[in-house]
Fold this sequence. Notes:
With 328 residues, the chain is of the alpha/beta class. The chain has two domains: 8-144 and 265-310, 3-Layer(aba) Sandwich (Rossmann fold), CATH 3.40.50.450; 146-262, Phosphofructokinase domain (Rossmann fold), CATH 3.40.50. It is built from eleven helices and eleven strands. The chain has helices at residues 21-34, 46-50, 84-96, 108-120, 145-166, 181-190, 204-216, 235-245, 267-285, 305-310, 317-326; strands at 8-13, 38-42, 54-57, 101-106, 125-129, 169-174, 194-196, 222-227, 251-255, 291-296, 299-304. The longest helix is centred in the middle third of the chain and has 22 residues, at 145-166. It starts with 7 loop residues before the first strand and ends with a helix. The structure holds 6-O-phosphono-beta-D-fructofuranose (F6P). The site of 6-O-phosphono-beta-D-fructofuranose has 11 residues, from loops.
Amino acid sequence: MSKRKIKRIGVFTSGGDAPGMNAAVRAVVRTAIYHKCQVFGIYNGYEGMINDDIKKLQKGDVANIIHRGGTILKTSRSKEFMEKTGRAKAYKNLKKHKIDGCIAIGGNGTFTGGLVFESEHDIPFIGVPGTIDNDIFGTDYTIGYDTAINTAIEAIDRIRDTADSHSRLFFIEVMGRHAGYIALNTGIGSGAGYTFLPETKNTIEDLVSFLEGSLSRNKLFNLIIVAEGNKTGNAMKISKKLKKINEKFDSRVTIIGHLQRGGSPSAMDRVLASRFGYTAVNSLIAGEKNKAVGIIDGDMVLTPFDQAINKVKDIDEELVRMAEILAM
Ligand code: F6P
């Protein structure tokens, strides 16, 4: 562990925003102030680090934000930070503000940026997992995931009403480029009939035999969840292919998309984000670096960035099986 004294802490949010990021920023600022540290908000993620968009934050600056979606610090996916020259500019700005360590709130891309930065420069980073995808190794949950699946389920409950009334087949596409956590648990929680995940090899033929089974039981309406990153195609494509196979499989498509990223964070996300922010600051002050905080079986843990980035958090096969059984 580093012996560096941490007196000035930078905090930023990066990558896709997630409900609860503000609660994490609030926890970082207030925990740091409690430890008599100064805190600096780095606006727009790594872009703000490069462009010197850095301002001191007081405890009042994070008042009245715990319930707000999005991120008051703004966010970006910085291409320039992927270049060595971009990181050198960022380092110069952190030095200018005498920042001793940073709390990076975001997903895999954010942690990768932190890992590369630390291999070149002497400023420690601690990561806080904030992404609706819940796809980070070393934590059971990421900030924003609980809110995102609740938002998706609420929307699907409404679709269910109209699908049932018209005895219609509906495809609902949810986010998750590489991971099916959102799709799987949205499917379970909304009582969907069938779910396409990036991790499983569902085919159109499998779907057809599921739908034929439903029809044979006189069940005409069905909700099919499609994770955007699944290998069979997006919801619109699957819907069209299905109709080509048989005209009777007429369907409607709803893409929930960025709706899942906004809105007031759930109680679970607010508490999780507060615990993460608090633990991140305490860890940085204790001399930890290059690690992401996480929650495993209810406890706060730290996972080295290289593991958090490179290890895959596998989808629970038993849950996939359960979803199929319950949809019968
Ligand atoms: O990383 C979270 C996420 O919402 C993914 O689920 C989604 O694929 C992606 O971000 C969308 O990113 P953008 O808003 O940049 O299009």
